[in-house]
Specification:
Elements (H helix, E strand, L loop, with lengths): L13 E5 L4 H13 L5 E4 L8 H6 L4 H6 L1 E3 L2 H4 L5 E5 L10 E2 L1 H13 L4 E5 L8 H4 L4 E3 L12 H15 L19 H17 L9 H14 L4 H17 L19 H12 L1
């Protein structure tokens, strides 16, 4: 049942699925592999045969992985050309093999790949994983730090985790992202002080700073909050626009029974108009 004897160039560990039951799971594994730069998929006795249209559909355009998949009659044949193999398992095994977590396993695979070795990762059946003799064909075990009360992972989930750790192990900067928010120039102090005056004038017009003896402390707190936010220029413009909009459509008179008590030239437009109108009366 061997599909092809052509050996693909090693661009990462081979992902080896032992007797996978559902084509959909195979396809989702292929998709996870493609997400993180892996392309060599090996299948040992897939239950529903191969090729599988269900697998192709679930792969969501990871056709290069599906098309290059190789099928083997037994696991020994599937790992015969590999120098190093990890077996994934959720339960402890009665053997003396080293056990690693996925982060350490990803780094170990990367180091071996850089030295020219061909590597692979074994994933067991959906229902009960790998037999002990199959784990015995691997060099080391990798297990995931999951909740012991519910430790079983779908093979596509497990393949995704290992594929991710493989790619991450090759990054110079693991914190780097594929894209970032646009860089914005921080607002100048002059712009920030202008916002202070604009906002404080609007609040004064509405009698916010009451009682009067507490105004200096309230102003200090307000300025501290706005300074700590570290606004960029465009963000300050948004805030001024919001204040201006509220000023146009909110009640003109301050809350309480007092009056604005401020020079109209220092207030936002609507508040200034309210003061002028009162003066005319």
């Amino acid at each position: 049942m061997q599909a092809s004897n052509d050996i693909l160039p090693a661009t990462g560990p081979a992902i080896i699925l032992v007797e996978p039951q559902l084509g959909e799971n195979i396809g989702m594994v292929a998709r996870a592999m493609a997400n993180f730069g892996l392309s060599e998929l090996r299948l040992v006795n897939p239950r529903d045969g191969w090729p599988s249209e269900k697998a192709r559909a679930a792969a969501s355009r990871a056709d290069h992985v599906i098309d290059a998949a190789r099928v083997f009659d037994d696991l020994a044949s599937a790992v015969a050309d590999l120098n190093f193999v990890f077996a994934t398992t959720a339960r402890a095994r009665d053997n003396f093999k080293p056990v690693r977590g996925p982060v350490e396993a990803g780094r170990a695979l990367r180091a071996r790949q850089r030295s020219g070795q061909r590597t692979g990762i074994l994933f067991g059946r959906e229902r009960f994983g790998l037999y002990n003799d199959e784990v015995g064909l691997a060099d080391e075990i990798v297990t995931f730090p999951v909740d012991p009360a519910f430790s079983s992972l779908n093979i596509a989930q497990a393949a995704l985790l290992m594929s991710y750790e493989w790619m991450k192990s090759g990054l110079e900067d693991e914190t780097k992202t594929n894209f970032s928010s646009p860089e914005m120039m921080p607002a100048t102090k002059e712009q920030l002080h202008g916002l202070f005056a604009y906002l404080e004038g609007a609040l004064e017009a509405r009698g916010y700073f009451r009682p009067a003896p507490k105004k200096p402390k309230m102003v200090d707190n307000l300025r501290a909050v706005l300074t700590r936010a570290g606004f960029a220029e465009p963000e300050l413009k948004v805030l001024r626009g919001i204040i201006s909009s509220l000023d146009r459509f909110s009640p003109a008179m301050p809350r309480g029974d007092g009056s604005p008590g401020d020079d109209p030239r220092r207030l936002p437009a609507a508040a200034a108009r309210a003061v002028k109108a009162k003066d005319k009366d």
